[in-house]
């Protein structure tokens, strides 16, 4: 599932590409992606609207529209968005169409200038919902609009080491599961939880409320460091994730433990292990992570 770095990458690229564009029409072959209203209703409501700005909160994307409404998009397991200009160059077309993970297109926004955004989604869990409110109103009171409450954004300055400590102290649960709990901290999923804990040298099964002050400080630094670096590398394309132009991210080349079962730890040379936590795989080095 796309996590904070992947969704942030898509958000940044969308802001560079589709701000100011006007929606001409929509297309789908899977109208179940549209939640709350019918596909035809959605098209009526947003036709002619301009895209003002794209915002990310946790793993959610919001398209702010000129008609005072917002589109809430969740990529879920395997969704990603692809931009195609009016006259794509052969190179652009090759990135978009030369990769089978970009071919599961189930929804398209056509803009009046001839460009488009396509939603490619292999497993079809992605969601598009129209909300009759400005994005900042939604983010002020997410519950009112049917969104889950999300914990703080870990890359914002106001997410401090003290804030992290406050969150962890209340949780008598494995630290990996706490990091992945969206109601406590926003945007961290399975890949980055494993990588952050390796970076901080903390064993994923340790109880969150048993970490020492020193470990929390280290964990705090690792959260910021790993996520910021992954955003810089445009996310991880371990499987199907692609950026807006259909290209892979680069952070998968820097993964230290995620998906590395049986391989040697890059730090100590011992073997990376995989365990199950909350039905998900956790990867870690039992030697480096105490
Ligand atoms: Zn190691």
Describe this structure in words.
The protein has 290 residues and is of the alpha+beta class. It has 2 domains: 142 residues, MutM-like, N-terminal (N-terminal domain of MutM-like DNA repair proteins); 124 residues, Helicase, Ruva Protein, domain 3 (Orthogonal Bundle). The strands form 3 sheets. A 5-stranded mixed β-sheet has the order 2-9-5-4-3. Strand 4 and strand 5 form a beta hairpin. It is globular and about 55 Å long. Bound molecules: zinc ion. Zinc ion binds next to loops.
Spans of 5+ residues with little confidence (pLDDT < 50)?
none
- What name does the CATH topology of the largest domain carry? N-terminal domain of MutM-like DNA repair proteins
What's the count of strands?
11
Computed CA radius of gyration, to the nearest angstrom: 20 Å
**Secondary-structure element sequence?**
HEEHEEEEHEEEHHHHHEE
How many alpha or pi helices? Answer: 8
The major beta sheet can be summarized as: 5 strands, mixed
Keyword list:
290 residues; alpha+beta; N-terminal domain of MutM-like DNA repair proteins; Helicase, Ruva Protein, domain 3; 2 domains; five-stranded mixed β-sheet; four-stranded antiparallel β-sheet; 8 helices; 28% helix; binds zinc ion
